[in-house]
Amino acid sequence: MAAPAAAALRRFTPVTPGAAPSMSPVRLLCRRHRLQPPWSRWAGSDAAARYDVVMSCNPSFGGIGKGHLMREVDALDGLCARLCDHSGVHYKVLNRRKGPAVWGLRAQVDRKLYKENMQKEILNTPFLTVREGSVEDLLLKEPESEHPGKCQVSGVLLGDGSKVHAGSVILTTGTFLRGMVLIGLERHPAGRLGDPSSTGLAQTLEKLGFTVGRLKTGTPPRLAKDTIDFSVLEKQWADHHPIPFSFLSETVWIKPEDQLLCYLTYTNPKVEKIIRDNLYLNNHVKETTKGPRYCPSLESKVLRFPNRIHQLWLEPEGLDSNIIYPQGMSLTLPPELQEQVITCIQGLEKAKMVQPGYGVQYDFLDPRQLTASLESRLVQRLFFAGQINGTTGYEEAAAQGVIAGINACLRVCGKPPFTISRTEGYIGVLIDDLTTLGTSEPYRMFTSRVEFRTFLRPDNADSRLTSRGFEETGCVSRQRYERASQIKAAIEEGVTMLTSLQLPPSKWSSLIPEIVISSSRSSPVRALDILQYPEVNMELLARIFPEPLGKLAEWRELAERLKIEVVYRVCTANQQQEMEEVRRDEALLLPEDLDYFTINASLSQEMREKLDSARPQTIGAVSRIPGITPAAILNLLRFVKTNQQKTADINLPFRTGRSLPERNTDVLAKSEFQSSNLSRAF
């Protein structure tokens, strides 16, 4: 789902009137030819036809960790956050009991509205031509000598034999790369039910020498809304004051009272018995292919957690849709057994299944074959994003899509790549994990993967990334840049003002009896410190200081962000120091053409092989390669610094003739070892 890269790329060709709709302007979409799968009962149903849409799986965006990614994609002017604000039917912030740093913005999205809004946005993008076709092969030519890679991509070959030439190519194949759909013991080549898989492209990538793996995922059966007894189920209410995903949205499009409900139900021992008794009819579960650990099929949950009940969330697919998506009920049993499972569950005793659940197995490429810009090391100007890199979920794909889109454009323009480090954003953590560690199962973003959570919050993504996007790449609109700059300046002004407003502790206690200030404290207390109390907000402080704080409190978004900024101020200051220490290692770039097998460094053959396979771009990335020892990091760091010093000495315009003092290798070794250990901890 590379749609957010729309804001990053601008093709210098006019929009084609009436062009086929596309989810992403940075790739060519495979034309959807309706197949006749072996499950003809379902293939011809209205439901099956309605699912031939862009949102391939669940009708929701965001979540814990994933919501952070969406905010960062939006900060770089990606599309998905804005479209969710115009298409959602149920908005809720997860993790509310914890601090704002780990809140998870989430929305149930109307599939039809989201598709319409996306098509409208894409087809009205200036200088963009949308062309739809099946990509069967890559056009290749001789490589550029100054960049690594065996060849250079120059376009794609379509299924009809026509060629599309390009300065850069991005592949976002989803689950279609040699995709196989499974229901029970039946299997059929497809990327999703009714849509053909991509085999020609898969063969091309394999022949080029890419390391290929196999992953799997699944989708639940769809249920008819009017056949479910919601009266016996737990209601899940949306937030009365929905928080928009996009920094450009003042509010979401729907009135709070018009939001749709979600419902919660549970499995039971009958469900487990049906699944266990019929595992022999389920090829998808028996396969050794790795599936998503954190969103497994119901069969996998039964096997992994025996004698347990499991939550099932019933999610609406749209305002005028009669379809319910049962989150947590991914099944690949034969359809008749899926119906048995469904009717065993409370509230679903009379539920009608309008499309069965099924599994999908597909090829992915080892993401360690990519640079931090998501460009392939094997084929120059070829970029990958989404599930082809081993990730799962719309949000992870969107995050990669916007970075791949920006860098594909920069590559054509001959400009340096745009990358985000682990200290700058969740996107940086995602891409660093993939390109450094790789993955053997579908990768999913969590807040627990991020070292600097109190700084990398969803509320400040624009402060962190928007100016970089505008100044370094031009992917951010001036409107967004000016708004982000205005907010950032207003926050700084607000913090300064709150710092200057001071009162004696006794005065604060009389004005705000709910807070407890130490009786031993005699010096004046700043309004900045008072705002850190949970009971205090900007509105309350504005009543005490109406003249200086009144306007700040009236600007609701600013007032909320000031509160969060003040609460995390001390933690953020500490983390900033830690980040600077980490950046010192991460900023040390390794030469792209470094030959690990011949360099004069004390490295074992095993370490050399690991380094050559991973091709880390920085010392910080080296420290995160599994199996790389602290000693190896130290020796490589010493080698690189020595070589850099030699290069610097050679390039000096004047020599004084004085010799440099001899280096204290013991002190150097100690400091470098500590530095490498620090980086390794992160």
Automatic annotation (TrEMBL):
Annotated InterPro entries: FAD/NAD-bd_sf, GIDA_C_N, MnmG, MnmG-rel, MnmG-rel_CS, MnmG_C, MnmG_C_subdom, MnmG_C_subdom_sf
Among its keywords, does the record have Flavoprotein? yes
Q: Which residues form a coiled coil?
A: none
One molecular function GO term is: flavin adenine dinucleotide binding
Q: Which UniProt keywords apply?
A: FAD, Flavoprotein
Q: Does the keyword Flavoprotein apply?
A: yes
The protein's annotated catalytic reaction(s) are: 5,10-methylenetetrahydrofolate + uridine(34) in tRNA + taurine + GTP + A + H2O = 5-taurinomethyluridine(34) in tRNA + 7,8-dihydrofolate + GDP + AH2 + phosphate + H(+)
**Cofactor field:** FAD
GO cellular component assignments: cytosol; mitochondrion; transferase complex
Q: Name one GO biological process term.
A: tRNA methylation
Q: Which domain of life is it from?
A: Eukaryota
Instruction: Outline the extent of the tRNA uridine 5-carboxymethylaminomethyl modification enzyme C-terminal subdomain domain.
Output: 566-638
Q: A Pfam family name for this chain?
A: SAM_GIDA_C
Name the SUPFAM superfamilies for this protein. Answer: FAD/NAD(P)-binding domain
The similarity comment for this entry is: Belongs to the MnmG family.
Q: So what does this one do?
A: Component of the GTPBP3-MTO1 complex that catalyzes the 5-taurinomethyluridine (taum(5)U) modification at the 34th wobble position (U34) of mitochondrial tRNAs (mt-tRNAs), which plays a role in mt-tRNA decoding and mitochondrial translation. Taum(5)U formation on mammalian mt-tRNA requires the presence of both GTPBP3-mediated GTPase activity and MTO1 catalytic activity.
Q: Subunit notes for this chain?
A: Homodimer; forms a dimer in the presence of potassium. Interacts with GTPBP3; forms the GTPBP3-MTO1 complex composed of homodimers of GTPBP3 and MTO1.
Q: What is this protein called?
A: 5-taurinomethyluridine-[tRNA] synthase subunit MTO1, mitochondrial
Organism of provenance = Crocodylus porosus (Saltwater crocodile)
Q: Which gene encodes it?
A: MTO1
